[in-house]
Design brief:
single chain; alpha+beta; seven-stranded mixed β-barrel; two-stranded antiparallel ribbon; 5 helices; about 20% helix; elongated
């Protein structure tokens, strides 16, 4: 059970539970005619079908070989369905690494050119520390959120007791009544993006509240991409 240390606008904080939003039972992805849709992965190419291997094998005759016989296609493997996979690190020469490589942080300028390269720093999680996640001054109407930020993940915040129920219900009701989402921040000053695990992604977080009588729902929408028009991005 994962937890988050959350503070309201009255500077009262509590440790509450978070969990990923699950799709309600009975809801499936389908086409207008009722046909169900399933997402699957297939083998597109094998190592022997990559350009470097083919170029080394055929040399200047590669173009003619591709036209004549499709040597890039392994007929025994290409098109097969891919099941569960595991991450494997490879060296520059394509050899399997049996220990995780050292991470390097590469910084690029606005022109796309590399500016700096340095060892990556280990970044700690910041959502369940002494400094709680708190409200910032930024508020958006619910309809504005999806036009300004790409939401990549949504998690639900839940109570663990009667006291935390009152604490969270009051948040949800205030946001629902105003039809707003509140931006949350982490760190000592409440300005940092949220990081849920060590070296994890940095998210801008927006809290939405929904009310149905005594029931409530607090949804924390996470984004790592701000949407801008070309004119705004240029300025």
């Amino acid at each position: 059970m994962r937890k988050i240390n959350l503070m309201n606008e009255a500077s009262r904080n509590a440790e509450v539970v978070i969990e990923s939003v699950r799709k309600p039972p009975g809801i499936t992805t389908g086409l207008p005619g009722g046909k169900k849709v399933a997402f699957k992965r297939y083998v597109a190419a094998t190592e022997g079908g990559l350009h470097a291997k083919l170029a080394a094998q055929h040399g200047d005759a590669l173009a003619k070989a591709l036209i004549a016989g499709d040597p890039e296609i392994d007929r025994e493997l290409v098109g097969r369905e891919v099941g569960e996979t595991q991450t494997v690190f490879l060296s520059g020469g394509g050899e399997v690494l049996h220990a995780s490589p050292s991470l390097v942080e590469v910084i690029f300028g606005t022109d796309g050119k590399e500016r700096e390269r340095k060892p990556a720093e280990s970044v700690a999680a910041n959502t369940n520390e002494e400094s709680p996640v708190r409200f910032t001054k930024l508020r958006l109407k619910r309809g504005e959120l999806v036009t300004k930020f790409a939401v990549v993940r949504t998690i639900q915040i839940k109570h663990t007791s009667g006291l935390s129920y009152d604490f969270l219900y009051a948040m949800a009701k205030e946001l629902a009544d105003k039809d707003e989402v509140a931006r949350l921040g982490a760190g000592p000053k409440g300005r940092d993006p949220l990081i849920f695990q060590e070296n994890g992604a940095r998210y801008q977080a927006f809290l939405e509240g929904r009310i149905d009588g005594p029931r409530y729902k607090l949804l924390l929408h996470l984004s790592n991409l701000e949407l801008r028009t070309l004119a705004a991005a240029a300025s």
